[in-house]
Amino acid sequence: MSQLRIVREGEGSGYPKASLLLRAGARISDVLIAWALFYATGPAGVVLALLYILFADGMLQGQSLGKKLFGIKVVYVPTRSGARHRDSVLRNAPFGLIVILSMMPELGMRAFFAGLVVIGSIEALQCIRDREGVRLGDTWAQTQVIDGKVQADQPQRATTQQQEARATGRLRDLQDMQHRISSAAAAENREGP
After folding, report:
1. CB contact set of 82 (below 8 Å; sequence gap of 6+)
2. Spatial separation of the C-alpha atoms in residues 120 and 133, rounded to whole Å
3. Which has fewest Cβ within 10 Å: 63, 146, 148, 168?
4. Within a domain: residue 13?
5. Whole-angstrom Cα distance, residue 119 to residue 169?
6. How many domains does the chain have?
7. 7 lies in a domain?
8. Concatenated DSSP letters for the chain?
9. Is residue 166 within 8 Å of residue 19, measured between CB atoms?
10. Is residue 43 part of a domain?
11. How far apart are CA 37 and CA 54, in angstroms?
12. What residues does 82 pair with on adjacent strands?
């Protein structure tokens, strides 16, 4: 059984910064899932989309469906374990606010897009500038997004070249999978009914 280790302030997490491309892909996937929930469930759609955005990172031991697809995960740094639902809600609160803005009477989608631009820009800029990729929501929740191949209880430092190689390999794998799916669909269309 592994022991939990509390990380002290100023030590840094010890985890390498996850690829920003993988993080962007995972976020886009999760937003598309929330958007599908919004449209598929009628009047309750906005609530279900909000709940998915807030709780998604605590679903699969620190991975939302998008993060699982792109091979990254959220770690609660003080205990070096996968993010829980509480951590997920705290780290995704800025994005939850964007969904809440869409519920404003008379402003609706204009408030949503304004919030998306302002909050999204602040979070993205913070993530890019921070050496560990920690954004405002991660600071609140004491979390960090890491490569899924890194064990949560065994942080390690990786060089920039290693990080780029991981991201490139994952993106190549995703492109290969998309190519196989589209080839299979094209073959099926040629065969006809």
Report:
1. 61, 62, 63, 73, 74, 75, 76, 152
2. 15
3. 168
4. no
5. 30
6. 1
7. no
8. -PPP-PPPTTS---PPPPPHHHHHHHHHHHHHHHHHHHHHTGGGHHHHHHHHHHHGGGTTSS--HHHHHHTEEEEETTTTEE--HHHHHHHHHHHHHHHHHTTSTTTHHHHHHHHHHHHHHHHHHHHHHSTT---HHHHHHTEEEEETTS-TTS-----HHHHHHHHHHHHHHHHHHHHHHHHHHHHHHHH--
9. yes
10. yes
11. 13
12. 75
- C-beta separation of 57 from 26 below 8 A: no
Q: Confirm if 21 and 170 have CB atoms less than 8 A apart.
A: no
pLDDT band (50, 70, 90) for residue 91: very high
If one compares 106 and 89, the residue with the highest pLDDT of the two is: 89
65 touches 24 (CB < 8 A): no
List the structure tokens of 162. Answer: 């290693």
Owning domain of residue 154: 20-191
> Does residue 82 lie in a domain region?
yes
pTM attached to this predicted model:
0.66
Give bridge partners of residue 74 from the DSSP assignment. 145
Q: What one-letter code names the amino acid at 27?
A: R
Q: Taking a C-beta distance cutoff of 8 angstroms, is the pair 148, 166 a contact?
A: no
Question: Under a CB-based contact definition with an 8 Å cutoff, are residues 143 and 91 in contact?
Answer: yes
Q: Which long-range contacts (CB under 8 A, 24 or more apart) does 116-122 make?
A: 119/94, 119/95, 122/94
User: If you average pLDDT over every residue of the chain, what do you get?
Assistant: 80
